[in-house]
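Quick start: read one record
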Amino acid sequence: MKFPNMPYSRPQFEEVNTALYKYLERFKAAATKDECFAVFKEIEEYSEGFNSMFVLSFIRNSLDTTDKFYEGEKDYSDEVQPKLEEVAQELLMAVLESPFRKDMEAAWGTLLFDKAEMELKTFKPEIIPDLQEENRLSTEYDKLVASAQIEFDGKTLTLAQMGPYYENPDREVRKAAMEASANWRMKHIEKWDSLFESLVKTRHTIGEKLGQKNFTQIGYYRMERLGYDRNDVEKFREGVVKYIVPVAKRLKEEQAKRIGVDKLKVYDDPYIFPDGNAMPIGTPEDIFAHGKKMYAELSKETDEFMQFMLDRELFDVLTRPGKSGGGYCHYIPTYKSPFIFANFNGTAGDIDVLTHEAGHAYASYRARNIYPSQLGNYTYEIAEVHSMSMEFLTWPWMRGFFGIQTEKYYYQHLASALTFIPYGVMVDEFQHHIYDNPNMPADERNTLWLKLEAKYRPWLDLSDTPFYEEGRRWQAQAHIYERPFYYIDYCLAQMVALSFWTEAQKDKAAAWQKYDTLVGFAGTKTFVDLVKDAGIPSPFVPENLEIVSDAAVKWLNENSK
């Protein structure tokens, strides 16, 4: 079914809650293995139905945040989903305590049960009001971002539509554009601060009610960290400081010299070449036409996937007023359909979205028939391995997007992968400090951010623009508000993606086959086991960061302009 035709109806809380408790009693009363498995399947199918409605309300609200109907449905979803957690937790407990657990483990493996045990640690009925408040505050942040109307270049633009101006060859235009966006954000600093303070306090309360001294460990449980903990993440950050930051610093110093500036200001940071960054050629329709060709030639499976997405209109990528910012891929269970959301703005980021979000969507498509469906639910860092690796494995088709600018695109994509990692771990360290110290005043949060900027991005001159100079850059990062502790997943996945890029330089077909095999494991392995079984250097061993980045650095040295 095409996305616009997918019917929506509000899941009524009492009806859903009552039905789930009836399923719970039937599951507990199952007298045989076959009966247990049969009721489990019924629960899965029923849950997919109402969860699909929650996903549809989220997507349609993000497509147009001014649509009052779906605004109301999203608000309803924010209120109801936490209330359904109580019965969901009881169902999990019943599965874990089932006399047929060993039969289920024999059929499906133990990871599903390890994840269930972790999920039980994230909920108690008394936190339902706090979860509702957390949802409300996150939605309020998203609405504020979507409301941006910036007067620039004789137009009224959204934040996404400002993107191309940040890469304009004229430095004064870049500066003016960055200042215009920053000035809009500065008009709302009290709102940014109050929203975040409320989110931190709400999450801290959740942590305390769940028996933790703060929210940090709950954040790890929510992110399903299995096989590693915050100490391993800290080792990874230390490895980045030792091995990646010096490389990134050199690349940025070369960039400053290349574009003719003494120091990189915030408005110079995205601008890589003196004659302009690589930009995609053609219309959005041209981009999609080549994207279809790319996936048709990449493999039989990706050809079928892309046709599935296009036939069902599972893309919305053009930016417009009222549309939420950023990009994502969500999965609609009832229709076994991924949906890709993006904001094209004419920059190379449009192509990165087409490959990155398509990596997510392809993995969802591959996992759509796995049973139980939980085995298709890979953890977040694995999801980012799917997407970031797809960005690199589609390099052979970039000429169709960039023409004579293709070599420039290769350079900026690979260099940006390396320079992104320090920023990503900076976000992670910032969040650890914040949630370990939930009473930190607003000005100290900004001071902390500036301190981390000096540690992880010492090449960047933040002066001249108050929003950045005051240490408020973090307020523009949606993950910090909406998905705490997510950002490190991008960094871990980037190291894996660079390993795939290295292999693809030697043998494209073998690299793709290795990637496709990895995607096929879906949610049956932890990130640690997946990396190990794929023969990829673990990012938790600091010295491996140097090994993985060496090939990229060598390529950049040979292809620098």
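The chain has a mean pLDDT of 95.
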